[in-house]
Each structure stands twice: as structure tokens, then as C-alpha cells.
# Entry
Amino acid sequence: MIRRIVLPVIVALLMLWAVGCSDNPTSTPEEAATVAQDFGGFTATNEAPAFGDADLQVAEAEELEVDDPILTSVSVQEVVNNADAGVFQLRAVWGMIPYDSTVTAVTDWTGSLTISRGAIVLRRLIRFEPATDYILPRTDRMLLEWVSATTVANDGVAVDLFVPPARPTIDSSWVPVEGGDSTLVIDTIPAEPVTVTFATGPYSRTFTLAELARLDEVITLESGNSVAFNSMEMFRNVCPRGHLAGMWGYDENNDGVFKGLWMSEHGRLIGFVEGNFGLDSSGAKVFFGKWIDASGQFEGLLRGTWGKRPASANENSRGKNPGGWFAGRIFDADSNPIGVLSGRFHDALKYKDGWFQGRWKLNCSRPVDDDGELDDDGIGDEG
# Structure
């Protein structure tokens, strides 16, 4: 099922012609042909919104941006507007990953997300169906509750987690001393570490903030359902970053393709991505792609590698697709690296049934690590 990615001469000529007729006046035909060769046929040109792709328009409709009413709370506004508060963005998806048309059993995922200190703000509902899935009224800034049921597909939520600075507890007491007097003793008790708990009937998990800073995990259950978590720490006014998610699998020609949504801080939809994956002429697993904004303007080219992850015991016993990982870089119109991306996928024979979810970030002025990457959040890492 893995196909080799080859750029035939006719494709190169078509890409050269397309650039010559594009809105991008800074690229010569020769430069465009080189870019197409380096990025699997993709070039730094503008496109129709959502690439003019009906599948992406459907994917956009399946994710609903939410104005969480909890934001009207004064206590929540105090946390959200606190410049010293930590901010984490989390996507959680549950159900059949990927889509499985043979499933008839209904799985009840009614549950909650709880933070031990701070506030949860709901940003997106993922494939919630009005007849069976809904959010319960928000009455507690630290608690998000939902009703969800899945069969052949999956549901999910995307949230922001705001964590105010820790304030130690001051405990004072008078302690007797020799002579009948007493002295005031003041103890400083450090604040408890913040935890976030995902709780449903089929699966529950508690995370630390350190885990949420670079979380990218898919858990397969004995029922055949899966739960996928993808999160990162968000930094105020630096290092643009966010999530991408969509379809991953094979088209009618058995070529590997992926298509999806490109989201920024607070889960806002800011664009779309399309690409292909397969083997290059040396047999290496590679992918190429293109990122555009919501109006179709060019934003970046993508190039990287992918691989299969080992099957778990549950996956082996049920013959379930173990999925894989992808990791790569984002490039500008002049082929300069400007950022990184990475994530997980579950491919399918029909790409519309497949699934991927990942994270991206652009370079900025934050200090780099010894390996040349930005902060150690796992974005761009393999596996």
C-alpha cells in the first residue's frame, strides 16, 4: 500500500506553468520548478480557500469553535488576563480512531475534565452530534463535563488550561518556650502541584503540567476504541504555535495523502493543510505538504519523515492498525526553514476514514537548545 513519491516531468511542467500564472510575482519559473522538485510538487502559490476541497470543507464543519460562557465569570477573567499565568492547549479525542464502519456497539464516553487549580476554557467541539453529544452547563471554572456516545467514529474537545502562579500557604502558630512565654512560628507550605484529570467510563487519566507541556499519545483500549491526547504549553506573545488535525490514508490510486485543519492559539481555525506521503527513490519514508491561511494565501511548505509505531498487545490481539508518527519542518517561499511540526496518525485504505493530529510552531526569539530546536516541547521530535 506504500507508494513511491516521484515527480514526473509532466508534473514539473504543470507546476511551472501554474506558477507562471499565479499571484506570486517573486518566483521565477525556474525557481518554482526547483521548489516543486524539493517539495513533492507543491509550490509557494496561493490557492482557493480550503484548496477548493470538499473533504476539507466537511472537516471544517465537523469541528465547532465555541464561545465558552465561563469566560463571562469575573474569576475566570482574572486568571485568563493574568500575565504570569501558565497556558496549556489540549486536544482530547475518543472513540474509533480511525473510523470503522463495522462497529455497531455504542460506547458511552460521558465524562469530565478537571484541573486542580486554575481554569478550563472550552475552545472547540470535535464531531459532537446534537442528538447524542453535548456539554453540560458550566458552573465551575475548574470542571468541564460532557455527554458523548460513539459508534463508528470519534468525538473530542479542545480546551485552554490557565494556571495562575502558585501562592504558598502561610501557617502561623504560637509555640510555648521556657519561662512560660511563647513565640510565633510561621511556616510556609508550598502549593500543591497542579494536575489535570480526564475521566470517562472507558478510560481515565491524570496528567501533570510537565506532561501537558509536550503530550502526544494514543491509547488503544481492549474494546478497540482509542483515546488520543495532544497538548503543548502556550507562550504569550512569542513562538506562534498550535494544532493541526484531519484525514490520513490512501486515495483511489493507492497514493498516500493527508488533508486537514490548521489551528492557532485558543483553537482558532487559521488555515488548511494538504500533502502526500510515501517512499522516495531511496526507499525513505517521506511526506510533503502545503499550508495556506483561511482565505487561501500561501503560508508554508512542509517536508519531513514518518514511520509506523509498534503495535500494542491490544492492537495485536484485535488486528488493529497501530498507526504511526510524523515529524518535519515548515519552510517559507524561499525554502528557508521557519518552523517544525509533528504528530500521530492512523492511516486507512480510504483517507477519509483515516486520522491525524499534531502540533506546529514557528521560529522566534526564544533561546534555542543545543540541538538547534526551540524550547523542549517535543514538537518536531520523531516517534
